[in-house]
């Protein structure tokens, strides 16, 4: 058990181990993302997930709709806004689980294809070492996000226990059929239900989000490693020639032979870089096709949640608002880092000292330059690119909508 737990640390930064880490997180939710894991999921996990999901549906779907549409409605706009914000924030977890379950086979194929690509990396080469170095950054980023959400969820659960009297984190949030909620045994029942549903919502959301970050992070790590290979390709060809020149017998043709040897080395290296580049493009395209619709739905819900959190007052939503923004930030961060890596690859193509290559290799570099100008991006529904600009646009639009609605309500 301890050996398996240690593999979640930064020392284990190879891609197969990272995917095993993600797979274990999702295994508890009865989601299997690995083709190689053919054993059945333990019945206890199915039972735990069923109980947690049923409680989650009762709290964040059924009770939320009842509170927003019937109990509070227009009579208490502040309470309605708070409940709507909490509900929309939590519904994201449900959409992610439903998506993962509905696309189980596609996700297994995606993970298998990424692992297959990684298996083609030759160990102990500079490319493999740079890939591991960049994957370590991805894993560190994922761990920070996981810990951030865990702390936020823990604070959400502990806060009412630290307050005098019988309270809940959001006193507005009533459960259908458990009124009055501050009296026994309703208080004890509600506390248990809120603990289960909040823990389930945070764990499932962040577990699936980590899967997203690691997969996209692998594309990012590959692009940075490929960029480094291109920047060193000319020097590598010279080093290769210096290592084998003693084998050349005909010293009169040494200059001509030198160019032939170096350009052949460059041809093979460019071929390998192109192969990995095309593979990464295809992998990202397939991943985008899977997630584009669910990302569009999630960002629509999160934008509405931000507006509702502001309308409900920060004194009630000071924990929910950071939770919402970080959900948006982590996807946009992954998208921005992928764009940065793609741009870095384009710059490396032009700075590979192609002017020293023969005509055939120059044509190959030209082809690579054309391919690299189509930046690799993450898409939400095909209408938006996930990056910092999109995040700021969402926040600005949400705040503008909030100010308009606030003046209308007042």
From TrEMBL:
Transmembrane segments: 15-33, 45-73, 79-99, 143-162, 189-214, 376-395
Entries under Pfam families matching the protein: 7tm_6
Top-level taxon in the UniProt lineage: Eukaryota
Localization in the cell: Cell membrane
GO biological process: signal transduction
UniProt keyword annotation of Membrane present: yes
Bilayer topology annotation: Multi-pass membrane protein
Gene Ontology CC: plasma membrane
Keyword Ribosomal protein: no
A GO MF label: olfactory receptor activity
Predominant cellular place of this UniProt entry's protein: membrane
Alphabetical UniProt keywords: Cell membrane, Membrane, Olfaction, Receptor, Sensory transduction, Transducer, Transmembrane, Transmembrane helix
Family membership noted in the UniProt record: Belongs to the insect chemoreceptor superfamily. Heteromeric odorant receptor channel (TC 1.A.69) family.
Identification of the protein by name: Odorant receptor
Organism of derivation: Euphydryas editha
Higher taxonomy: Eukaryota, Metazoa, Ecdysozoa, Arthropoda, Hexapoda
């Amino acid at each position: 058990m301890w050996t398996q737990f240690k593999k979640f640390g930064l020392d284990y930064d190879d891609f197969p181990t990272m995917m095993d880490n993600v797979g274990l997180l999702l295994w508890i939710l009865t989601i299997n993302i690995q083709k190689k894991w053919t054993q059945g999921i333990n019945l206890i996990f199915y039972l735990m997930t069923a109980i947690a999901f049923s409680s989650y549906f009762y709290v964040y779907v059924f009770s939320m709709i009842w509170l927003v549409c019937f109990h509070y409605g227009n009579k208490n706009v502040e309470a309605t806004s708070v409940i709507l914000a909490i509900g929309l924030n939590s519904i994201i977890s449900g959409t992610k689980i439903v998506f993962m379950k509905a696309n189980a086979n596609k996700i297994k194929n995606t993970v298998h294809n990424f692992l297959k690509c990684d298996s083609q990396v030759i160990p102990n080469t500079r490319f493999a070492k740079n890939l591991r170095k960049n994957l370590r950054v991805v894993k560190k980023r994922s761990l920070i996000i996981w810990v951030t959400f865990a702390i936020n969820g823990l604070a959400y659960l502990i806060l009412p226990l630290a307050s005098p009297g019988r309270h809940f984190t959001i006193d507005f949030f009533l459960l259908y059929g458990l009124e009055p909620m501050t009296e026994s045994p309703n208080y004890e029942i509600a506390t248990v239900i809120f603990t289960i549903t909040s823990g389930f919502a945070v764990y499932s959301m962040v577990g699936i989000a980590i899967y997203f970050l690691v997969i996209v992070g692998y594309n990012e790590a590959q692009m940075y490693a490929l960029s480094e290979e291109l920047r060193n390709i000319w020097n590598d060809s010279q080093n290769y020639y210096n290592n084998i020149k003693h084998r050349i017998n005909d010293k009169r043709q040494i200059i001509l032979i030198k160019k032939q040897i170096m350009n052949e080395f460059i041809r093979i290296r460019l071929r390998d870089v192109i192969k990995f580049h095309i593979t990464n493009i295809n992998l990202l395209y397939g991943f985008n096709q899977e997630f584009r619709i669910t990302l569009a739905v999630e960002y629509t819900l999160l934008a509405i949640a931000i507006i509702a959190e502001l309308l409900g007052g920060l004194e009630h939503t000071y924990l929910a608002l950071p939770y919402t923004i970080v959900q948006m930030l982590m996807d946009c961060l992954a998208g921005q880092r992928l764009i940065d890596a793609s741009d870095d690859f384009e710059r490396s193509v032009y700075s590979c000292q192609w002017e020293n290559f023969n005509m055939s290799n120059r044509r190959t570099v030209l082809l690579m330059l054309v391919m690299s100008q189509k930046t690799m991006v993450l898409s939400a529904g095909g209408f938006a690119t996930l990056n910092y600009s999109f995040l700021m646009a969402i926040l600005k639009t949400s705040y503008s909508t909030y100010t308009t609605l606030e003046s209308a309500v007042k």
